[in-house]
Structures are given as structure tokens and as C-alpha cells.
Amino acid sequence: MTKTERTERIRDYLRINTSATIQELAQMLDVSHMTIRRDITSLSEKGVLRIIHGGVIFNDDGHTDGYRMSLARTNMLDEKQQIARKAVSLIEPNDSIIIDAGSTGELIATFLPQDIPISVICYALNIASIVAQRPNCTLVVTGGYYHESSMVLESPEGLELLKQNRANKAFITASGVSTSLGITCSNFFERAIKHAALKSCRTSILVADSSKFDIIKPGHFADIEDFDVIITDTGISEECSAAIRAMEHKRLFTVG
Amino acid sequence: MTKTERTERIRDYLRINTSATIQELAQMLDVSHMTIRRDITSLSEKGVLRIIHGGVIFNDDGHTDGYRMSLARTNMLDEKQQIARKAVSLIEPNDSIIIDAGSTGELIATFLPQDIPISVICYALNIASIVAQRPNCTLVVTGGYYHESSMVLESPEGLELLKQNRANKAFITASGVSTSLGITCSNFFERAIKHAALKSCRTSILVADSSKFDIIKPGHFADIEDFDVIITDTGISEECSAAIRAMEHKRLFTVG
DNA sequence: GACTGTATGTTAAAAACATCACAACTATCA
DNA sequence: TGATAGTTGTGATGTTTTTAACATACAGTC
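Predict the joint structure of the above. Result:
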């Protein structure tokens, strides 16, 4: 059995079991633990798995998400976590909520309250996977073509499904927030989805860490006026904060 | 910091990282190894995580899938794996394939060839998650309401999207296979989806281990005649095997 | 104040695992 | 055939983790 074969089988095994001991693998492939060791060190160099004392853990992240997403995940993580925790604190029993794509959306999904029944509508595969694991949760995923970089599922039919669902709260993320030029995102197709999400909800909540402020991206999908609640961190400039506070019927939360 | 706080933070950490070493956790929470050890043993007793040498792994399964699915996963696993491996061996470069829901479908998704470009259409969330991790793979997920027991996404819009996609191969699973009463499934909504999948493909491939044979479930969605290829294991009865072989234009693979 | 139970930290020995160097094996090519 | 490079197994040695026993701290109770 060649090294390539072995690494393939190790991957297969990990895809099913997510982790393995060196013993297990050595026994399965009928080779010595040293061989396994050498195989897994090369696999770990490629980022496929992570070696810990006594075994290995499969590393979804290595291949799962586009490069961008994994970058977004670690950037401003602290602030994003705090924003997400604030966001989920607004959720009430029997709420129907829309969770937008993006790393902040993923954190909201992660921190969703366990104990109260809610309905969730989403269109990003990573978020769907997280929400599906929750008890007390009705889940609708609008389908479509899978975009690797944002993990969004996009199609006319999905958009239609989104338009026909109603939510009382929508947590919308953005790539750029500008008091003058409005809320923007990077991709064309996200515009339509975010726009539809905004139209389908009663209370619209913008979740964006301070690094997104004073940034302008090509896809304009809303203005600050269109949001009822804005959650960000204390890193935003005085001007932004003042400009938002000057608007009527708007709640601004700055965490951190 | 109380024990409850700590276990909550361990859970949060694992939700994001899926695994952790004892060192990591001890450092993060600034307590001794022994405290973490005691925390994780109580968490593992609750089934939240799994302790391995040197660390812990988050146990999605505890909360993720309906009872049924996890049962289906372990039942006839060997045969299912062999069937899945046979199934993926039929895939050629640039194929467009439909993968049906179910544990065998999940295994097919797992074993999908890495090195050739293919397109995949699916409607089960677990399968979507697996396929999304592949390189060289265009993915379409038909969306809809999430059914926990089968992990299928179902909606009229999703069905529409499925009908509008074309595949040259569809790998269809079944809960019951009878030479006289045809191919059946358990749920009403699955019928429509499986039927649509069959209509949208050139070559239809039935993947069903021998435990499904001579079983009849309420939802009839096709007859054996409707399939071009049947992949099962050597456990099926002589009569079944003979009856299928007697049909024209049909290929039967029995693995194991 | 002494008692009790729970939660946490410390320590040391035992067990499990990792690493290293070297020998044995395999395949390839001249 | 023999040289070479690459791969794999073995056993001695070093390291980390586990376990268990004991020490400490703190809150509630008699």
C-alpha cells in the first residue's frame, strides 16, 4: 500500500469519525505506528488534520471554506463575538429570525439561545449546519448554487422562498457601512438576497464590527435609515456614532 | 468562576473549534488541569463531548441528528460503505450527479472522487455540508423547510429548482425495495423529491443495502424498471437477484 | 467555633505516547 | 549485480498525560 493510498484512507476515516488515535489507524492500515506518524505529520503540514497527543483531529477548516472566510473568522473575533452575543440577547421566544451570511452571522447562529423555541431562515450553508443542530428550532434554508467564498446558496427559487417567508427580526451583516453612501456588500448576488431579507422582516438589525465602518463596497443594498437597530463595537468613530444617534427611531448598541 | 460558567465557555469554545486540548482549555479559563479534567468528565457523561487522549472532541451527534439518522448510520455500515464505494466508482469527469438523502447518500458524498471536476445536486443538509468541502465541485442545494429526521430540505421552490436542473447520474436511496410493489420511502415529501430527481437524470442508480429488500414502506416513488443500475450487497435473496437479472437493460452490482 | 460537603489545587508515580537513530527492506536504474 | 534513494519497522530513551491520593479553601449547618 502506497503512501497516497494510506493518506486517502486516513482522510476517509476522518471524514466519518472526525478523529482517530494512532493505534486505530495503524491497526486499520496494518502498518506500524511510525508509518502512521509520518503520514499524519505530512497531512498536518497540509492542514488536513491536527495532531494531538495520542491521535489526530480532522480539520474541516483546511478545505471547507474559501480562504477569505477563514480570514474573516479570525479578524476582529473578539468584537464579533460580543456583537453576536448582544444580537442573540434580542431574541425572544417564538421569534422568527433571518440570519445573514458571514462570520458574524455564524457566531449569531452559534450563540442562539438553546432553551426557547424559534424559527430561523438562512441561506448560508455553514449557518444552516449550525442551526440544524439546535433543538427547539424550525429551520428554513433557501437553496441554490453554492458560492464557496461566502458559503451562500443562491438561486431565483431560493430568493422566491426568502420573499415568501416572514420574520420579525433579521440580523444583516455588511462588508461596508458608510453614513453617506449606505450599506454595501461585495457580491452582486448577495445584494438581492440581503435586500429580500430586509423586505421580509419587521425589525431589521445591522450587525457590523467597527472595521466595516467608513468602508465602501460595490454592492449597495440599503441605507442606515433602513435599519431599526445597529449593533457594533466601540471602535467606530465619533462622527459615525453621532450621525447615527442623530437619526430618529433608531437604536445603536456599541459593545466592547 | 463557577463550574457552570466554565462548562458554558468550554461548550462555546468547542462550538467554534470542534476540538481542544486540555492545556488550551486550562489556559483559556485559567484553572488547573485537574479542574478542566473534572469539568470535561462531567460533560462527557452528558454526551456533550468525547474525551480522547490529550483533549476533547465536540460531540455534534448528541444534539444534531434525529435518533433515526444516527441509528441508520451504524446499521449495515460495512455494506453501505462498499455500496457507496462502488457507486462513486461510476462517476466520470465532468459528471453532473444527484445525491439522494440518507446514510448511504452521505457515504457517497464522503467518498466522492477528489481529483476530477463534478457537479452535485442535493437536498439534504448533511450531504450539502460534506460536498461543500470538496474542491473541484460545483454544488447546488435545493432549499426549503428542514426535516430533522432525514435532514432533507423541502419546499415547492426547492422542488422547482430540482426539476430545472439536469444530471447524467442520480444516486437514489430507498427505504423499501420490492420486486412486486416497487421502490418506496417513508415520508410523503420525500416521494416528490425522489420522483423529481429520477425525472431529471439520464442514468438512474438505485443504492440500497440488502436490508431494504422485501420491505414495503408507504410512499411509492418508482419501480425497479425505472432504474438503470442497482447497487446492493450480496445479502439479497436469490429470487430478488434472479428477478432483477431477468429484466432487460439493467445492471445489477452486488458488493461484499 | 467545629463539622461537613463541595470545589479546586498540588504532587508524585504509573501509564501512555512521542521521538530518535539505526537496521531492514523495496524499487529503480545503470 | 550493486549502488542509491526512499520507505518502513524496531527498540531504547525522553516526554506528556493520566490517575489517584492528599492538601487547601470556602460556604452552609449544627
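Chain A is about 40% helix and 25% strand.
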